Amino acid sequence: MSTLLQVENIECRYDQLVITREISFALNQGDICCLLGPSGCGKTTLLRTIAGFDPVYTGSISLNGEVISAPNLMVQPEERRIGMVFQDYALFPHLTLAENVAFGLRKFSDKERKERVCEMLDLVNMSDLGHRYPHELSGGQQQRVALARALAPRPQIILLDEPFSNLDFELRKHLGLEVRRILKSLNISGILVTHDQTEAFAMADYVGVLNQGRLQQWDTPYNLYHEPQNRFVANFVGQGYFIPGTLQNHCNVETEIGLIEGNRAYPWKDGTPVDVLLRPDDIVHSPEGPIKAIVEQFTFTGSATLYRLKLPSGQIVESMFNSHAEFSIGDTVQLEVKADHLILFPQPGANVNETPSALAEAS
Questions:
Q1: Which of 18, 17, 12, 120 is nearest to 59 (CA)?
Q2: pLDDT means over runs of 10, the chain (363 residues)
Q3: Residue 263's domain spans which residues?
Q4: Structure pTM?
């Protein structure tokens, strides 16, 4: 699979304010990626820089092996073959849908332009609405037209800046999957900016997690959830809580809920104080389970209920119960651990520089 977009060690600034630092990643042809992170982390700035709206201070951006942004070089947005879908749709209110889609096709012949408009409206299931104006459409329909307009010139990459944030949850979910289907059918790469993890995981092949202008991890959604590389990613992606423990035998941890056995070895000495990340699916309801906890709060989701539970020490954990297991606030429930692997981080101040003897001998 060929690399389409290469972002290398870029820094972006507004005047002297540094927005992003040392960001590097690659996007392959046909892949969809998502830039995920809290507000103010630099997601939209990074997207605008790729689009050519903002310059880079250091580093470079290449498209198909050609540098399009560098400190002394900036290819204009209209020359990049990069399409953009904005949060507010940015449709022209005085133009019909067909005229909106045709707007970027001035270099096409009349016949080619008409054929492309019909093709794009059909692609987004709006072939019968080309005569209407934007104000006559719902939000979801307007977003489809914005996508059709961005796709019409056949760009190499589509950039989507929180395109579904103005829509309700069900429509957002449906439209996200529809956009993924369309991009995949055309083999067009996409970069989505969002703060919604569910949206990111549903749409993207790869997700880049940003925080304070730095790329924390670039990985598949599965690996971000199961193999977070630092505490920020572990906390930000998915749900979970850290509980304290003590490392034993490099792959087991003693905690207040018992010995948790993992399937990997950590390169720290026995006795290292660690924090264990537990997801709601790592702790399960069990009437005969050895762990007792008090129900602090719960959220019914239909097929399951997410319980917030307090352990005897006061430590808070979360667990997803089958919806038929019904408990009230203050009830005591029994649990067992079903974690098939460990996600550990040394506790602040822990000495982790010494190599465990067992691993040293093995090497």
A1: 12
A2: 92 92 96 94 94 96 96 94 87 94 90 93 92 92 91 94 83 87 93 91 95 96 92 89 90 89 83 92 91 95 91 92 90 90 85 48 34
A3: 239-362
A4: 0.86
